[in-house]
Amino acid sequence: MHYRSTRGYIQTATAAEAIIEGIAPDGGLYVPTEAVPSFLLDQLPTSDYRELAKTIFTPYLTGFDNDAVLDSVNKAYSPDKFDHPSITPLHPLDDKLSVLELWHGPTSAFKDIALQLLPHLMRLAIRQSSEDKEIVILTATSGDTGKSALEGFKNIPGIKIVVYYPETGVSEIQKLQMTTQEGENVVVAAVKGNFDDAQNGVKTLFNDPRLAVTLADAGKRLSSANSINWGRLLPQIVYYFAAYLDLVKKGLSYGKKVNFVVPTGNFGNILAGYYAHCLGLPINRLICAANRNKVLSDFINSGIYNCRRPLHQTLSPSMDILISSNLERLLFELSNQDSELVNRWMKQLKQDGQYTISRAVHEKIRELFWSGCADDQKTINTIAGVYSQHNYLIDTHTAVGRAVLSEYLEQEADGLPAVILSTASPYKFTGSVTKAILGNSFNQNLSETELLKVLAAETGTAVPANLTGLEQKEIKHKQVIAPTAMRDHLLEILGIR
């Protein structure tokens, strides 16, 4: 298996090269050059998440030693990293609805599934390609990717990681997780503005040929831990299969279709579901759940992508995004891999802030994808409703998913089982979750870290160990920079003048 750029760069890359580079030389995203045959569901491992992961990875990681990949998987998903033996347990709410808990890793967010493994894949890729430069992982985060990447890459020899996050666009706990991060090779800085400012700044650095030469002369090269990196996206395909196989254990017939509900902003999480569908997973609909920043929902419903709108700060901050990078991969696949067309749309997005896809591509999207949105009030009401009805606690992003599913069922009522991807522990957003559960009957002057105990006492649930004591840790990363200063900041921290 080789990889090509969505924007038509003439040379293909090996799996190792695609993982190390992160983004193609022409600014496009790497995608597989050929389709992988569908997996036979009844022949997939059903009892061990690690074995399932290795099976799904094998055709995509040509050139990698299979034993080394399995060793990497075992290390990434070890009991000292994940606090549940199933890694991604499926929690039933009723006979037709389940929640896929993707937050049992070391930072209590779904990004851990990929970012505990990516550092291992990166090291294997470096070894395979004989890369002799220091790899600089450059990442923008809307909240969870940053901490997960920092935790995954900390103190790994030959790799430095730099994370940029929006100064006011993350929760208090997400910010503390990043700014207290330990590790000799980690750097964290806040960017004045929103996530799109940070993400566009990072993309600019990747696409700066003069910077690439400067770094190469200093013995360094950039790579990414965002989901623009195929090595980050690939591990996310696995939990769709894991969820389906768990439903089979609970009585679902092989081949029966299932709806997956995905709260998403950058489109990576739901794109992994698309690739799972391509591999033969019986998915009826991928339901894209958006918050008030409903650029994806508007696009799926209209075929017009328009980011010329204000970015709202919501209670689901990891989805506060207007430019969804991974959508480019879907457009490439559904336009019959027409890189010329994708190039035109991406240029229009950069120049005009919008583009309109062809009717043929839009019809393909509508066949598999459905989308709705939920505002903050609906998010709060949904958290309260799920807790009241099921005695089950969900975070704000998962609540957006549940609210949008209700909208879908009002319109479609297909009677099929549904799985909501739960992307974060409710304890990462204690302010919003406590408000939903207790209303105004708590001290609203308490910080999010102080509310951890309040929420635990009220609900009888346990605070994830990695979130306790954050407020007592030393703040190690205090820098705040303008988006225009990101290049100078990067060179400075790398010791390049």
Question: What does the model show?
Answer:
The protein has a 6-stranded mixed beta sheet, sandwiched between helices. By secondary structure, the protein is of the alpha/beta class. The chain is globular, with a radius of gyration of 21 Å. It has a domain of 254 residues: Rossmann fold. It is built from 20 helices and 16 strands.
The portion of residues forming beta strands comes to 5-15%
Which word captures the global form? globular
**CATH hierarchy, class of the domain at 90-107 and 231-466:** Alpha Beta
Uncertain residue ranges: none
Radius of gyration: 21 Å
CATH architecture assignment of the domain at 90-107 and 231-466: 3-Layer(aba) Sandwich
Quickly count the helices.
20
Class by alpha and beta content: alpha/beta
**Helix proportion:** 40-55%
CATH topology grouping of the domain at 90-107 and 231-466: Rossmann fold
Distance, first to last CA: 40 Å
- Count the beta strands: 16
Q: What's the mean pLDDT score? A: 95
Strand order of the largest sheet: 4-5-15-10-11-14
Largest sheet: 6 strands, mixed
